[in-house]
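Onboarding guide, step 5: your first structure request.
Type a short instruction followed by the sequence, for example:

Predict the 3D structure of this protein.
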Amino acid sequence: MRTITEIIIHCTATRPDANCTVESIRRYHKSLGWHDIGYHYVIYPDGSVHSARPIEQVGAHCPGHNVQSIGVAYVGGLDADGHPADTRTPLQRLALLQLVQDLMEEHNVTTIHGHNEYAAKACPCFNVQQWRKENNF
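The system replies with structure tokens like these:
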């Protein structure tokens, strides 16, 4: 098993009502020439958490950080007009919190970041460090 020290949170940069699934993301990422879907987990608007790339495999979600990280994405990130926005549903918020807490415990993770902390992107369309403070971790 690889050593995991970091969780990186993403959004899919889609409208929340888009028919965005693990399989549709996988098809898109493979069309870019990637080996598989880049994320390890995807959280749907209904709060369901779906495994994507096997955790044992290095992800393809944040260059320079993939080897030691787990990539988690929520479906959404764009408002109805296609602008970046925190579109997490209450169920997604709860699922993300629980998943991150579980992964931190299971893998002894020491850092959590938003993709926007490493790239000039809005993703995940909310301030991960503020979210961490609000949730005391």
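Each response can be followed by summary notes, for example: The chain is about 25% helix and 15% strand.
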